């Protein structure tokens, strides 16, 4: 038998067969019950130029008139100068599962003569939601964290049939690391199937050229073939070419469907042969809503948070804890201040000792000099005293004072005798 996996950080794992039913197989049901009781929060943002069908599509997606259709502004009305951010919240319920849905709208996007910075207020809004989440995480009491972060951003592309416009590229480039981008070709009923296919290819190549990351349905190794095939099919439809309508219309064969009626026929919203609405709903609601929430939390928010804390000068996880804990932060600052004071004191002591040593050395030197001078003077005086003693002795004994000088004289004096 193969040895159990071991190594650094891995405890030995022993596979054991159970002797009977224990019950942890019921864990997924426990999680299910708990999450149904708690309900879910989901925030989606819609961005795109005015009149592309954003309100209609949101209503179509959630099958409710959550989003009131706005009357176009009369020509004389004062128009806002910047992109505004408006959000609408609604509690919806399906088969006992509650969902608190928030739709963030961005009226004014792309409506100005100069749209260079249209993305800025939207990025600010997304980041301020991250900020608010971080602030809640750092509270002493974290019982009721409200997750207002944007989990998905539906970006509406005008069905021009050409390629992405500068404003589209700029928006996606600026936002793709902060939000799950889901590009949508609006009002797809205005183009033929061939035009849509060619337009999709151009949009995708633009996205790839600009290294823009759009949300992809994830697949995991241990998943069954059906799930993988479903994810691949959804991925093959990106950017979703959609048709929105919250009105029921009658088809020639007598059915009532959500769609748009034209003189030549009916475009059905929920018909996969007519548009990608069903696949979009699968991506956003039915299959990958939890993945969108998870990716927002684990990747987008986490990266933003790391960057933010690094920007604040926090270098390591340990320090991060202190940074977000005011008491620990004050303590750390006090310790740092005390260490600084102690260092200054030590430096001052060293300078003082150095000065004292220098002074002592100087004093010692002058003392030695004085001593030497004193000794010289003493020697000179002693010599003088001895000379005087000699003179005195000679005077007393009647000998001449300077024997050398008087030697001839002495010779003369005494020699003559
Ligand atoms: P603002 O509120 O100005 O931002 O517009 P909006 O993007 O929310 O557009 P809205 O949903 O109000 O739709 C604008 C017009 O487009 C309405 O007359 C809709 O009926 C129409 N419309 C919406 N969706 C579609 C669509 O898929 N195809 C077509 N042909 N028209 C649509």
UniProtKB/TrEMBL annotation:
This is Septin. Keywords: GTP-binding, Nucleotide-binding. InterPro entries: G_SEPTIN_dom, P-loop_NTPase, Septin. Residues 367-397 have a biased composition (Basic and acidic residues). GO terms for molecular function: GTP binding. GO terms for cellular component: cell cortex; septin cytoskeleton. Gene3D superfamilies: P-loop containing nucleotide triphosphate hydrolases. Belongs to the TRAFAC class TrmE-Era-EngA-EngB-Septin-like GTPase superfamily. Septin GTPase family. The keyword GTP-binding applies. Residues 408-417 have a biased composition (Basic residues). It comes from the Eukaryota. Residues 38-311 form the Septin-type G domain. Residues 367-417 are annotated as: Disordered.
